[in-house]
Design goal:
- Helix 6 crosses helix 7 and helix 7 packs across helix 8.
- The C terminus is likely disordered.
- Strands 7-6-5-8-9 form a five-stranded mixed beta sheet. Strands 3-2-1-4 form a four-stranded antiparallel beta sheet, with no helix packed on it.
- The radius of gyration is 34 Å and the shape is elongated.
- By secondary structure, the protein is of the alpha+beta class.
- It contains eight helices and nine strands.
């Protein structure tokens, strides 16, 4: 065992200096005056704490450990499933009629709202849409709208994207929609854009589709700056609802 001179007493250990002049933390030695030479043992608090922890764990009944592990195996998958299914965005879709898709973090559709009777007719022909990719569901809406005669000569579609929470993947969602639009080799013209969530909530209270409420606000003299719409998008949205209202008046 090493020997050293007591230099200082601490609450949980003693500081000693060996014959080489090296200082050490030693196991506490009580009732020894500073300056006296003593045999000492190196202080190992971490090792002691680890052994103490192992002893405590060893005292836990095996059945309790099994129960805790079983609960973790049950709860963790539910937690991750809930996290993945969290609503990322609401897609307000306008053709001649209006729909709203609720999309999760994986860009899968959680639910569809039909905002008028004609949209409900299309909805009756949609089945098994839940948990399918948003592009697949949008294609199905377009297909059923054509079959139901709800599309005019100009096959225009607006997709307003509203995020209830801030999310780093939101720009990727809009990029996916734009890529989806560009890859289609047909006569459809699809415009996707961001809509502030407060506009969606305002439209919901007024009983109107989100994009229609947005079109109304575009015509206001005090146009909110947080919309982040470019001039082309504003012109398309305004033209879409002007044409839609004109056709409704002619019927």
């Amino acid at each position: 065992m090493k020997k050293g001179i007591v230099m200082e007493h601490r609450h949980t250990y003693t500081i000693v200096m060996d014959r080489d002049g090296t200082f050490h933390k030693a196991m506490p030695v009580k009732h020894v005056d500073i300056g006296n030479e003593i045999p000492f043992e190196i202080y190992r608090a971490e090792r002691k704490g680890y052994i103490f922890l192992l002893r405590k764990v060893g005292q836990i009944p095996g059945r309790l450990i099994v129960l805790v592990c079983a609960l973790l195996l049950f709860v963790l998958p539910i937690y991750f499933a809930f996290a993945n299914n969290k609503t990322l965005a609401y897609l307000s879709i306008d053709i001649k009629r209006s729909f709203e898709l609720e999309v999760d973090n994986k860009f899968h559709v959680r639910s569809i709202r039909y905002l008028n009777e004609d949209a409900e007719q299309v909805g009756m022909k949609l089945s098994q849409y839940r948990d399918r990719k948003m592009e697949t569901v949008i294609e199905k809406i377009m297909e059923q709208s054509e079959k139901s005669g709800l599309v005019g000569e100009k096959k225009d579609m607006l997709i307003g994207v509203s995020y209830p929470n801030e999310y780093h993947g939101k720009n990727r969602l809009l990029r996916n929609l734009n890529t989806f639009s560009q890859k289609r080799d047909d006569s459809w013209s699809i415009t996707a854009f961001h809509v502030p969530h407060n506009v969606r909530k305002s439209a919901e209270k007024a009983g109107k589709p989100t994009n229609e409420k947005l079109a109304e606000m575009i015509t206001q003299t005090e146009y909110p700056q947080n919309f982040n719409l470019n001039d082309e998008e504003k012109a398309i949205i305004h033209s879409f609802y002007f044409e839609k209202n004109r056709l409704s008046e002619e019927k």
